[in-house]
Backbone:
């Protein structure tokens, strides 16, 4: 949620890696299709190692920064977890975040991602896999 550190260049995939970019855009696109109330976008050129749920002009938004989207240690599973966690900040309901009280708490966003979000997008089996493997990956590289 909070903007974090910058991913070192050696851990970043090239901006020219179009195959990787297409894969990530496809994952984010699946969330956008499943949760149309939220606007998703990817800031490919930003080295910031994070993603963020926020509200702008009354619109729920989720932004994935390049430092995560291009991170070499993050697979599709990790990106899926990150997207589900951020969507969970908007859709998880109470308990709410102590400072950003229009969002669900960190714990609730995690819980919603694992029990609802990932399974809604990827089905039960793959959703469960992403909830364990993806979460583990994401926790190693980012403070969501
Ligand atoms: Zn969070």
Residues:
């Amino acid at each position: 949620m909070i903007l974090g550190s910058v991913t070192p260049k050696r851990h970043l995939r090239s901006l020219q890696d179009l195959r990787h970019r297409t894969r990530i855009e496809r994952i984010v696109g699946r969330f956008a299709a499943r949760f149309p109330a939220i606007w998703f976008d990817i800031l490919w050129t930003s080295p910031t190692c994070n993603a963020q749920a926020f509200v702008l002009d009354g619109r729920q938004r989720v932004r994935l920064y390049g430092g995560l989207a291009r991170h070499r240690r993050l697979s599709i599973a990790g990106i899926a977890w990150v997207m589900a966690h951020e969507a969970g900040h908007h859709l998880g309901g109470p308990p709410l975040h102590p400072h950003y009280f229009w969002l669900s708490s960190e714990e609730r966003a995690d819980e919603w991602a694992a029990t609802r979000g990932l399974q809604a997008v990827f089905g039960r089996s793959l959703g469960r896999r992403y909830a364990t493997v993806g979460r583990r990956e994401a926790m190693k590289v980012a403070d969501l």
Q: What stands out?
A: Strands lie at 38-43, 51-56, 59-65. The two ends are 5 Å apart (CA to CA).
